[in-house]
Amino acid sequence: LITERIPGGEPLADALHLAPMQPLQWLLLGKMLCRFHDAGVCHDDINARNILRDARGGFHLLDFDKARLLPTGPWQAQNLERFRRSLEKFKAVDARFHFERPDWQALQSGYTGKSAV
């Protein structure tokens, strides 16, 4: 078990309850998720509570007790879809939760590397 405090860190779920993120932030989140997937990290409990946004706007994936290392495969798209469902569940419970279709599109652009940023 490794524990480290992330200065100014707050769960993504809490941050999105308070205010929307800019498209660039969604894009950076997508890039972070892609880096983990490219390294073969399958985080089976990926959700908006297991991602922290730090004071600088960086993102950190937490809680690896259900994570596995896997070769490239369909699990990557399934894992990303699991994360999308997590965001949609928060939105369904709380109308003030800031997650919309363009947010997901920006995240996917960061994930696939198909962006101008």
Question: Keywords, please?
Answer:
single chain, 117 residues, alpha+beta, three-stranded antiparallel β-sheet, two-stranded antiparallel ribbon, 5 strands
Walk me through this protein's architecture.
The protein is α+β, with helices and mostly antiparallel strands and 117 residues long. It has 4 helices and 5 strands; from the N terminus they run βααββββαα. It has helices at residues 12-18, 23-38, 75-93, 101-112; strands at residues 10-11, 41-43, 51-53, 59-61, 67-69. The strands form 2 sheets. Strands 1-3-4 form a 3-stranded antiparallel sheet. It has a two-stranded antiparallel ribbon with strand order 2-5. Strand 3 (51-53) and strand 4 form a beta hairpin. Helix 2 (23-38) packs across helix 4 (101-112).
Number of strands: 5
Distance between the termini: 35 Å
Number of helices: 4
| Radius of gyration over C-alpha positions, nearest whole angstrom | 14 Å
Largest sheet, strands/sense/barrel: 3 strands, antiparallel
Output the helix-strand order.
Answer: EHHEEEEHH
* Poorly predicted sequence stretches spanning 5 or more consecutive residues: none
From the helix content, strand content and strand pairing, which structural class follows? alpha+beta
Shape: globular
Oligomeric state of the chains present here: single chain
Report the mean per-residue pLDDT as an integer.
93
- The fraction of residues in strands falls at 5-15%
What topology, given as strand order, has the largest sheet?
1-3-4
Q: Helical residue percent? A: 40-55%
